């Protein structure tokens, strides 16, 4: 067969057709592969903000919700509890929360919340990561709060750590904001209005 009898038109057509089929095949392989890099629905949900209704929390009661795989404690405090927190007779390591990198700027340093009656803290001891137990004022002689059963650390009803215990920092306050008077969202900080001069 001589070179004169080769059909260059057919050869170009076959080359283009093979290239096109290969490109489509590569696309079918690449799309699922690249899609596997995206986080799963479960992973997205684990990091998503959590809305919490507050209307069913009774005074003195604590509820626990999960946010980013961590327990978050919400405690509705009474006026008497708030007075006890402000005038605590107990020795605390950081009573004004001045040495706390884990506290948002928009919460008060003593009551450690946006609205005084509702405490929102991550329920993980700052010593070695155990989950503390909620102790009501009537259950203990140290004013109530949180007790870590692993190594005995205690925190008041503001999440401030007592002196003389293994934990070195107050419980973490997660970012949260109010959607309404009876609903908050954990994981979203409130929009801070800039002061105008």
How many helices does DSSP assign? 3
Report strand order across the widest sheet. Answer: 1-9-8
The total strand number stands at: 9
- CATH topology of the largest domain, which one? Rieske Iron-sulfur Protein
Query: Approximately how much beta-strand content do the residues carry?
Result: 15-25%
Sketch the topology as an H/E string, one letter per element: HHEEEHEEEEEE
Overall CATH class of the largest domain: Mainly Beta
Instruction: Identify the CATH architecture of the largest domain.
Output: 3-layer Sandwich
Question: Can you give the mean pLDDT?
Answer: 84
Largest sheet: 3 strands, antiparallel
The general outline is elongated
CATH homologous superfamily (4th level) name of the largest domain: Rieske [2Fe-2S] iron-sulphur domain
Distance between the termini: 90 Å
Structural class designation: alpha+beta
Gyration radius, in Å:
29 Å
Low-confidence stretches: 193-197
User: How much helical structure, as a percent, in the residues?
Assistant: 10-25%
Textual characterization of the structure:
The protein has 197 residues and is α+β, with helices and mostly antiparallel strands. Mean pLDDT is 84; it is low at 193-197. It has three helices and nine strands; from the N terminus they run H-H-E-E-E-H-E-E-E-E-E-E. The chain has a three-stranded antiparallel sheet, with no helix packed on it. The chain has two domains: 3-35; 47-186, Rieske Iron-sulfur Protein. A hairpin with a 2-residue loop joins strand 8 and strand 9. It has helices spanning 8-35, 41-47, 79-86; strands at residues 50-53, 62-67, 70-76, 118-122, 133-135, 145-147, 154-155, 176-180, 183-186.
